[in-house]
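Marked as duplicate of an earlier ticket. Keeping the data here for the record.
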Amino acid sequence: MFNNKTILITGGTGSLGKALTNYFLKNQNVVKKIIIFSRDEQKQFEMAQEFPISKFPQIRFFIGDVRDYERLRRAFKGVDYIIHAAAMKHVPIAEYNPMECIKTNINGAENVINAALETGVTKVVALSTDKAAAPINLYGATKLASDKLFIAANNIKGDNPIVFSVVRYGNVMGSNGSVIPFFIKKREEGVLPITVAEMTRFNISLQGGVDMVLHALETAWGGEIFVPKIPSYKITDIAKAIGPNCEQKIVGIRPGEKIHEEMITSSDSFFTYDLGNYYAIIPQIPKWSIDNFVDTFNAKKVEEGFTYNSGTNHEWVGVEELRTLIVKHVDSKFTF
């Protein structure tokens, strides 16, 4: 499905954007063009060293901000698929600068939708977050609003064949700003700060995030929120895995932080289907037949009241497995 297609990634210099670029250029070299759309020229410069145009002639770098509608509309011309990964995502920074977060995460989402509707784009996949499920912080609230915008975009497209969908997952192992690289750096000090000893998190690799996006591009009918079935870990176990000889110092929960991650709430259960490797929260007013959806994907409705929470998950990774995963997905030279 990627043969001779042009793909644009907003926020493409981030961890997932790089992983997607790597996939499309090294495993799917049939693509016509990959456009990295972001506002940080230094990160684009660094990424261009990793993916030089002399070796990867399909790649293009486009400076721009999702707050700038006209810039998006120009960038989207000739694009087939859009992966919307740009976001302001640091919880404390968003709390301190709320309007900046709203401008990027909500207004930016609206700009992406409108520009895509006007430029012949056929598929848009937007990245969400566990924090959008029953949000308790501004970042989560803006991503919930963003999710709603992308879902509703399928209702206003008219006879435009474009399809909008969303993928939602938790912490990406080793991504910028995540707990694993933070702990790896802090272990040199001999003390690892633990917010709450009971804290749990979902765990997904960068490849798992890439697979989620590809699944949405390949299968979305429009309006679904795709959620992966992934394991959880205890924050104390990740500390033991990285710094077994380090002191674990309880420092208290940060503003806007949850003890457990949640990706499907009990209210979502009325519209959630089990697809095997993934769950799909379908739109409350779908533009397609639910019966056909069920038949096509062998989908099974979850029980009413079902929730998907990192603290009550059925699948867990322990200390030894976490160490194996860190070496595999984060730092192949890391030792314990």
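See parent ticket for discussion. The first strand starts at residue 6 and ends at 10.
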